[in-house]
Each structure stands twice: as structure tokens, then as C-alpha cells.
Amino acid sequence: MKLILIALLGLTLTQAVFVKRSNDPSKAVFTQLEAMEEHELGRKLLDTIALQLNNKAPLGDIAKMLQQLRENLILNQQEADQKHAQDEVDCETEIYQYNRRIDFASNEITESTQEIQTLSAKVEQLTQDVENKQVQLDILNEQETQIREQRAEDAESFVRFENETENVIEAVEVIIQKLSSIQPDQEVLAALTQLNKIGASNPILALMQVASTFSAEQLNNVLGKLGEVSTQLAEALEDARQTEIQAQLDFEALVVEIASQRESLSAAREDSERQLQDNQQALDLQKKRKEDATDELNAASSGKEQKEAECDSWRTQYAEDSEHRQLEISIIRQVEEILATKLSNVKVYLQERSSA
User: Fold this and answer.
1) pLDDT tens, residue by residue, 115-140
2) Residues contacting 52, CB < 8 A, separation 6+
3) How many structural domains is the chain composed of?
4) Same-domain check for residues 82 and 211
């Protein structure tokens, strides 16, 4: 039997054989056998049967060989059917998984896109808020600088005013003292001689010279006026001192207020900066999420497309193989039937076939 199978599988294709037929009852059988010649398996079977008949092989061996071939083909078809069924299950399962991945990735893209829009607007808002608070801080710092410079200028002006006013008051007091020493009815030469020692340009000496000619009433009037001037100057100086004290207090209060505003603004800016950093990190994560989801969508879509193509290829191959296998089974059954019922016709056909 092994020799028969080897002979069947090892024979090469033979050329189509054309046999002249006479009008006899075997014509139908010959027509069937000629039709088998159109198929590779049919030709190989006829070649093998002819070889076995020439070798005087028992007909039972030939029938057993054909049965084994047919059963093998049927078994192969059953195995192919089982594999095809499993392939369909695998295809359905894998495509289902791809669809799940595609749905998940698509949902991730949709959600991350919405989050990106929201976070982008928040980041832009917080960025502007941080910039605005920094501008306000810069304005406060500039205001404080200007206030400090103005306060320094005002303090310097006050010191200058205070010194000048004190000098004037002191000079008026000196004048009053000197004029008070004049006795209109007495000799003033001694007083003038003493003042003359100060210098020729001494205004007090000049005033003493003029005042020496005053009457007592006129001198007292002058002294009264000078006293009023001294008092007014002292009052003006005291008012200026109080004003300076209040200005310094106002300055210090304003500096404290600016410092408080600066502290509040700095804290608010730092809070906005923290929020900005958090939202920027969240935005980066959402962008990464969308990027990963896009890659996953592309990979899953590509994988699904390849799997669908692979499954279609399997189906096509399965259909072609099944059709070819059913045709071979049909041919074997025809040969079995002819051998079982019309062996003599087969022998005649094979003899004419070999001699043609």
C-alpha cells in the first residue's frame, strides 16, 4: 500500500489523452474518464490504476488505496473546518479587542482634548494674572522709592529752614538785647565803640547808630515790633516742627501700608504662580495623554486592518482549499464507483489510453 501511495504522489503530470470512441455502450464511461483527465488528481489516479493493473495488483488493494485517499481528504477537510472555526473565533476575539482599544483611545482623545482646551484657557488666565500682579508690585516699589526720595528732600528742606529760622531768631534776640541797652538820654559812645570792634559791615552797629537817635517812645516801639517778629518766627518754627513730625508719621504709615500691600500682592502672585505651575503640569499630562491615545488609536486601527486582511485571506484560502478538496473527493468517488461497476470498461480505456 505504501508503494501505491508513493507512486500516486510521485507521478508527474501526463499529457491529455484523446481516444477515438466507437458508438458502443462504454461511451458514457469513457466520457467520465476523459473528464477526469482534466484534473491533476484524476490523471494521477488513472496513471496509478493503470500501473497497478499492469502489475497484476489485486483490485481490493486499488479500492483500499482509493478509500484511504478519500478518507484522508475527508479527514483533512474536517481538520480544516475545525481550524477555520477556530480561526473565525480568533478573528472575532482579536477584532473585538482592537475595537475596544479603538473605542478607549477615541474616548481618551475626546476627553483629553476637552481638558486641554479648559486647561489652556486657565493657564493663559493665570499667566496674565501673574503678570498683572507683578506690574502692581513694580508700581508699589516705584511709589515707595518716590515717597522715600520726597521725604528725604522734605526733611532736608526742614532742617535747612529750622537752622535758618533759629539763626534769624537768635539775631533778632541779639538786636533786641543790644537795643534794650541803649539809654537815649545817656552817652552811647561806649556801646558803639564795643559794637565797632565786630567790623565796619556789622548791621547791628549800623542799627545801633540809627537807634541811638530814637526817643524812648520810638525805641520801645521798635523793641516791641522786634519782639513780635521773634515770637512769630518762634511760632512758625514750632509749627514747622509739628508739620515735620506729622509728615514723618504720615510717611511711616504710608510705608507700612505699601509694605502690607506688597506682602498681600506677593502672596497672591505666589499663589497664582503655584496654580499656574499645577495647571501647566496638568496641561502637559493631558497633552501626553492625547499623544499616547493617538498613538494607541493608530496602532489599534492598523492592527485591526491587518487582522481583518489576514482573516479575509484565511477565509479565501479556506474556501479555495475546501472547494479543491471537495472536487478531489468527488473524483475519487467517481473512480471508486466506475471501478466497482465498470472495471472492464476502465481496463479498455486504460489500454487505449496507453497506446494512444
Assistant:
1) 999 999 999 999 999 999 999 999 99
2) 4, 61, 62, 65
3) 2
4) no
